[in-house]
Amino acid sequence: MTADYRDGRRARKRAPRRAATLWDPSVRHLSALERLRAQEAVRDPALLPLRYARMASSPWTYLRGAAAVMAADLAAAPHSGLTVQMCGDAHILNFGLWASPERQLLFDARDFDETLPGPFEWDLKRLATSIYVLADSEQLGGTCAEEAATAAVDTYRTAMRRYAEMGELDVWYDRITSDVPLRGLTSEFAEAAFRAIEKQSRKRTHHGVARQLVSEEGGRRHISLDPMKRIDEGLSLEQRVRAYEQVYDTYLASVSPHLRRLVHRFKRVDSVRQIVGVGSVGMRVWLHLLEGDSGRQPVFSQAKQATASVYEEFLGPSEFVNHGERVIVGQRLMQSASDIFLGHMRVDGYDYYVRQYRDMKIIPSGRQIAGYLPQFAAACGHALAKSHARSGEPAAIAGYLGKGNAFRAGILRYARDYAGQTHADHADLLTAIADNEVTAAERAW
């Protein structure tokens, strides 16, 4: 047994695999609602009613928006001390497909707003919890939820043991192709899923998105997106030019010198304000339409506000001064291949990260994966293990996991209990809205 494996076994004393996974609501120092309200200061006040309306729609949407609540709850229990680059919000729909720079569709984690170095098991607890909550939301039954959560944890363990026996470069270069989430399905079901993936990937190319979102009026192209708010609304021409130059220059400073030549070949055509996701509602997000000098290459660039990770309160501040940089460094650490346009900037006191918008990105819905939830969950466990092996010590993690069922039993018990806590917290939010303690509205403006 190597030293790394022994390190993992010693970590069991810090956090016994069964006892460390117990959920005890009495450890909370603040209520779930107080945790959510504490985040309001960094979000756009105009969007807060929409954020709460979306979170109130179901326990599933509540879980997606309550990463800060779960972060505090995870931090209240002993942890292994085996550090990886955490996704930070590894719920099951934060995994999906997108294209590598070579245009190959890969399966990987896809959301890194909360990424931070931290204990590997925190990501697994959130993944397993999300499976139970999603299965209930889709009315799939407890047996399906149990099978899917078991598949996620077991596949993570199997993959981590494999990574522990691989060389560093082999781990770094490993990729999960688009067929992996569909393995184990009947041929008829798999073929239908493949066709759906192929169709979505064609729609989400640069040209496909342009056909959906771009219209022309008076010889000028603009983004047709609803709901939206124009970035230059109410500003003079001089102010618009100065604001865009600030964005452009600070972004360019964050990308590699060889990429600047490519970026310089694009000019901004239009910009709109976006409302995205559930957990991100309230963050300032802008969508830019760019056009290449050739006139044949429309590209959408998205700039999304980044704030401190919800885990920094418990694990310490990020090493990066700009939270946009924290996000993109975490993404590059966790993904086998990342968007070449990733960058960061700071504008008017707000941190942002920049990425391509819908570059063959396929984000599943609960309804889409309901028919093969265990297979999809297994692929998520595999992807998470790959990401953790890239940034952590796979042999130590494998040593902690062991060959028996103690770790799996503990994670699943925690996930079941915390899924129940999520339902209770969601009910508390509904009560707060009914009592006018929290304002919720379906439209932001």
Automatic annotation (TrEMBL):
Pfam families the UniProt entry points to: DUF2252
Stated name of the protein: DUF2252 domain-containing protein
Organism: Paractinoplanes hotanensis
PANTHER family, per database record: DUF2252 DOMAIN-CONTAINING PROTEIN
